[in-house]
């Protein structure tokens, strides 16, 4: 779903690195629509809702690209995916299958609508849930939780 919001390359980078992005970067890349201080969040949300109700905020236009296939030509998809696969293979290696499954899922779902893309995402997630890497990482997480109490 993220590629439909911030583009294929940006989404692949965000998803494969797991890096946390500051609000300004998320705003600049289009992942979020606004940055609001916590104490102003409620008022900003109400204001945005009122704008939508009054027809001054076209939320349907904002939502539509999220429902459609990516706007990438076949050449752009090949170029982006080849670059991303190379970067991911170099960093993740063969012992961490999730990043490569993620990029393959992004590629497979690029020309699908949201429903089809979500089905592909679910298939990839189910495949990963059964791997030895997932079992090991869940074990590490659980052990960490025990230590933290």
Architecture overview:
The protein has about 150 residues and is mostly helical. It has a single domain (about 5-149), classed as 2-enoyl-CoA Hydratase, Chain A, domain 1. It has helices spanning about 5, 10-15, 25-30, 40-55, 60-65, 75-90, 100-110, 115-130, 130-149. The longest helix has 19 residues, at about 75-90. The protein is globular and about 50 Å long. The two termini are about 35 Å apart. The model has no long low-confidence stretch (mean pLDDT about 95).
Structural topology:
Layout: H1 3-6, H2 8-17, H3 23-29, H4 41-53, H5 59-67, H6 74-92, H7 98-109, H8 114-129, H9 132-148
Helix pairs in contact: 2-6, 2-7, 6-7, 7-8
Provide a brief overview of the structure.
The chain is mostly helical and 149 residues long. Helix content is 72%, strand content 0%. The protein has a single domain, classed as 2-enoyl-CoA Hydratase, Chain A, domain 1.
- The tally of structural domains comes to 1
Counting DSSP E segments of at least 2 residues, the number of strands comes to: 0
Q: What is the alpha-carbon Rg in Å? A: 18 Å
Number of helices: 9
Shape: globular
The low-confidence parts are none
Mean pLDDT: 93
Strand content: under 5%
Q: Do you know the CATH architecture?
A: Alpha-Beta Complex
Q: What is the straight-line distance between the termini?
A: 35 Å
């Amino acid at each position: 779903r993220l590629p439909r919001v911030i583009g294929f390359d940006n989404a692949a980078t965000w998803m494969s690195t797991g890096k946390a992005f500051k609000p300004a970067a998320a705003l600049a890349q289009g992942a979020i629509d606004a940055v609001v201080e916590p104490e102003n969040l409620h008022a900003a949300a109400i204001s945005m809702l009122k704008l939508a109700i009054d027809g001054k905020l076209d939320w349907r236009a904002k939502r539509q690209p999220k429902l459609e296939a990516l706007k990438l030509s076949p050449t752009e998809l090949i170029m982006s995916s080849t670059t991303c696969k190379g970067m991911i293979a170099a960093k993740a290696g063969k012992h961490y299958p999730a990043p490569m499954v993620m990029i393959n899922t992004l590629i497979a779902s690029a020309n699908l609508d949201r429903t089809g893309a979500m089905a592909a995402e679910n298939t990839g997630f189910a495949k990963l849930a059964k791997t030895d890497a997932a079992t090991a990482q869940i074990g590490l997480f659980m052990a960490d939780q025990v230590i933290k109490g």
